[in-house]
Amino acid sequence: MTRLMTEKELEAFEATRDIEAEILQGIDDMLANNAAKRTVITETDVALARRKAQLTQEQFAKLLGVSRRTLESWEQGVRRPSGAATSLIRLFIVDPTFVKESLA
């Protein structure tokens, strides 16, 4: 079973990522029809998105259109979000304010 990161570990992990570059690289790969490498949203990404959005599990689940239990299972790595949910989670990581305002 995967160990959940501490808040400090999560912040250190987040500081090393360039989400914008990762998204642009993914778009370039898709356009080049070279999307061999698949990026899987981990429970860390789901938790990171929710933390950046400053939402409770209940609030975040409602915005994503899923139950709180489903969100919990994503955060714990038991289940993986659908493609649409994955895209929305990535947007929350990049600009949570924009997404929250757009969905309100």
TrEMBL record:
Q: PROSITE patterns from the xrefs?
A: HTH_CROC1 (PS50943)
Keywords from UniProt, A to Z, are: DNA-binding, Transcription, Transcription regulation
Keyword Transcription (UniProt): yes
Top-level lineage group: Bacteria
* Alphabetized Gene3D superfamilies for the sequence: lambda repressor-like DNA-binding domains
Annotated InterPro entries: Cro/C1-type_HTH, HTH-type_reg/antitoxin, Lambda_DNA-bd_dom_sf
Entry's Gene Ontology molecular function annotations? DNA binding
> Known CDD domains for this protein?
HTH_XRE
Q: SMART domains this protein is in?
A: HTH_XRE
Work out whether the entry's keyword set contains Transcription: yes
- SUPFAM superfamilies per record: lambda repressor-like DNA-binding domains
Domain HTH cro/C1-type stretches: 46-99
Stated name of the protein: Helix-turn-helix domain-containing protein
Organism of this sequence: Acinetobacter sichuanensis
